[in-house]
Write a structure and sequence with these properties.
mainly alpha; 192 residues; 2% strand; two-stranded parallel sheet; 53% helix
Length: 192
């Protein structure tokens, strides 16, 4: 196959080059580095109410503004830093989401005391395993699951912000905790 257009992908990945690249390289790939896991959770928080394409277009600016989502650095962001972020036109300047990510970084540090890393905590909800679904149609893919419900309940109980079940499920997809590539997609078999 010489052309990437010859590959069969999940439908949503064919609508924009950024989505295609994200789909082909990242979506559904098991991710365990705790700062990368925190990055994806944070980006899913920012995505609430918006399209994933909007987030991908601003991803580089987010990485720069949030020190590559290094948990320890983000947890130290001050009110002054929040003010600077609210003026940063490269990111989503939401008065609730920016402080929430900083708050969540602090909680991710606290999680380490119990689980060793934020990543271990997140993956504990699937017993460290990938949940491999077998969807034939995008309409079959759920917006949440029993696992995302459990994750959401626990995260909210611990004080995490923007941790509803739908956000948690999208997050699980983004870090490869769940493989929701359609069975017809070329990535499905590659992510066994």
């Amino acid at each position: 196959m010489n052309s990437s257009t010859e590959l069969v992908r999940c439908d949503w990945a064919n609508t924009h080059p950024l989505l295609t690249e994200y789909h082909d390289r990242e979506w559904g790939v098991p991710l365990h580095d705790e700062n990368r896991v925190f990055e994806m959770f944070s980006l899913d928080c920012f995505q609430a109410g918006l399209s994933w394409l909007t987030i991908l277009k601003k991803r580089e600016a987010f990485l720069q503004a949030f020190d590559s989502f290094n948990i320890d650095r983000v947890a130290t962001f001050t009110h002054q830093k929040i003010g600077e972020l609210l003026l940063n036109q490269g990111i989503i300047r939401n008065r609730l989401k920016i402080p929430a990510v900083i708050h969540n970084a602090f909680l991710a540090q606290e999680i380490r005391k119990e689980f060793g890393t934020f990543s271990h905590y997140i993956w504990s909800f699937s017993d460290g395993k990938v949940i491999r679904n077998s969807w034939g149609n995008k309409r079959d893919i759920p917006a949440s699951s029993a696992v995302s419900d459990k994750m959401s309940r626990d995260m909210i109980k611990r004080g995490f912000k923007f941790a509803g079940s739908t956000i948690c499920y999208a997050f699980m997809q983004s870090i490869g905790m769940v493989n929701d590539h359609l069975v017809s997609c070329f990535r499905y078999e590659k992510l066994v």
